[in-house]
Amino acid sequence: MKLLVVEDEALLRHHLYTRLGEQGHVVDAVADAEEALYQVSEYNHDLAIIDLGLPGMNGLDLIRELRSQGKAFPILVLTARGNWQNKVEGLAAGADDYVVKPFQFEELEARLNALLRRSSGFVQSTIGAGPLLLDLNSKQATLLNQSLALTAYEYRILEYLMRHQQQVVSKDRLIEQLYPDDEERDPNVIEVLVGRLRRKLEGGSGFKPIETVRGQGYLFTQVCR
Amino acid sequence: MPTRKNNKVSSLRVRLMFGAAVTVSLFMLALFPALKQVFTAALEESIEQRLAADASALISAARIIDEQLRMPEKLPDEEFDILPARQIGMIYDNKSNLLWRSSSSKTIKLNYQPKYDGRGHEFLRDTDTDGREYFIYDVEVDLLRGKKADFSIVTMQSVSDYDVMYVSLRQQLYVWLGFALLLLLGFLWLGLGWGVRSLRSLSAELDEVETGKRAALSDEHPRELLRLTRSLNRLLESERQQSERYRHSLDDLAHSLKTPLAVLQGVGEVLSVNPDNSEQVHTLQGQVNRMSQQISYQLQRASLRKSGLLRYQVKLKPLLESLLGALDKVYRDKGVAVTQVFAEELRVPVEQGALLELLGNVLENAYRLCLNEVRISARLTAAGCELTIEDDGPGVPMHQRERILQRGERLDTQYPGQGIGTAVVKDIIDSYGGQLFVEDSDLGGAQFRIIFPLNK
What we know:
heterodimer; A: alpha/beta; Arc Repressor Mutant, subunit A; five-stranded parallel beta sheet; 8 helices; B: alpha+beta; Beta-Lactamase; Heat Shock Protein 90; 9 helices; 17% strand; rod-shaped; disordered N terminus
């Protein structure tokens, strides 16, 4: 998933960038609201983690601005005060959940995954389609109850396509999911990855859920549950 | 502040009215003897005039024939039988010998002896042997102008006749004075009402300020009050600014203390990857937790200061709506069914921020622990404003109830991981003189019942 982290404290920002990256997310980590607004205008994020106590434009105003721009991705708020006034204000401004500083990373991760599941319409921590089952917490795929060996990149592509089932997903969109914005991108890599993923899904079961829509991108044709 | 029970009259209008009524009544009482005297004098004068008229009638009826007094058999009013005007008359010679008496005077046993002493006329009172009192008019006349026809003509009237009249007129006087007093008091009441109206409007504005409907007092008050209202406005404004500054300082403090703690927490997590560090990491994280809890708790306590100026009356409904909106968002997957049982207009005598903190902590517990049902009820009782939050969760075990209810328990002695929720809840309730009861709900889970005394 492509995440946006807005936190002014450099050490904490770095910590989040690293830990979330380790969990298989692509993270854009910025220090203030202006940079955050630039990032969301350029890329499609799946979730934002926003510290309320930002210098300049504060976190609440940033959330309001994002919502007024029509950005619908879930927002997780980091708050230092942790009083209900702040929580209610944050949630009323458009945030979806909050974590009070200092937090254990596991707690943040659990909240974040719950928001991601909810935003793609899956309340359960698994997504299934035909013989395929994805465990969103352990990031493992099984096919016909057999563990399916996927690389981290293959898994990310599969999860993203399944979350956006029956929608055409462009290659650029998939690239954003795989690489941070400052890394070099090559659309051919996506073709190679999708090709490998198709072969792994098809092998043995004949399951072909991913179609190519010429000139536009890829489509996960199965209905997910 | 404890309210002292006293029976002193607290309304300014009633006090002024009472003072004015007493003054007016005393004034009337002082006026009364003078009025009575004037009235008596006027009455006696009219009686004297009447008796003088009677005497004139007798004189005109009298005839002197051969130096002898001759009176008609019947006097004019006896002739016409006009009873109430019956004349009582006697005629004496200058030696005080009774020469004639009217038939009406025959029952009077009055031992009156006129003295013919050339003093003209006299008006006096005398009592007969039966104790009946009479007004007596005694006039000396010389009917033949020097020809030895000197007579004393005496007319009289019973004082009891006069008493009847006097009592009836006095009653009328009482009635009129009473009526005048009532009328005066009525006007006074209206006048005082008009005067006190500005105080009432000031009081109404203060109510609005206290309940947050108005930011400051208006300038539409009489000159005498303007200095007071302007001082109050300055005080309100300075308190507001101070509280705003205070809130920002606390926010900054929280941010600047807890963000480094979050970094330390993160460092601990990174270090914990190496199993050799686990003991140190455990200590580090324990200390980070403890510091974080202390900071949160002290900041919350600091932010929950009560204003000395404002009397809080916070409408429960909108506050609860925003809180439930937030909780529903966080616990969306759980689909908690919330029932609200209270009057639309119900107000709670607690400052907005404190009430939000209190309900936030209690309700989050309920949302977290319930299966899917939470009930919030509120009502005004004789004891005060009662808030009840119930859920269908596992309930609170007995030993934990006592711990929650204990006063002044230090946070760091509490079980780790419990958070500061219940400590803050207890603090808020204590600072408003309220009571907390942790009970079983008929929903099957915990019931937190909170009673705040009403500030009158």
